[in-house]
Amino acid sequence: MANQSFSPPQEHQHGQGGGNRGTSAPQASGGTMNTIAKGAENVASSAVEAVGQAWDSTRSGVEQAASSVANVAGDAWDETRTFLRRYPLATLAGGFVLGFLVATAMGHGPSISNSGGR
Q1: Most buried in the list 11, 60, 75, 104, measured by CB within 10 Å?
Q2: 111: which residues sit within 8 A by CB, 6+ positions away?
Q3: Per-residue pLDDT averaged across 39-44, rounded?
């Protein structure tokens, strides 16, 4: 008697009706498979939705960043043009100095050496 109270319900069903033995196991596994399939569909649907939301959020962030960079670049260009117009001689002198430094760095400008032979 102690064994019967602790036995799983499936064993009692198999023992009672011999005709139900062939139909109860497939129906139970079919129901379980349907439940698993529906759960998998729900998980897949949730994953697709999450990926879509992440993509939209990333795209929106990139668009905002690009817009900010474009605004900053435009402002910098306007400030540079204003400076160049306001101080033309300083701009010309700066251009010569920059050109001299680049030419010297590339080895095409005058070389400064401490050789006593020349």
Answers
A1: 104
A2: 104
A3: 86
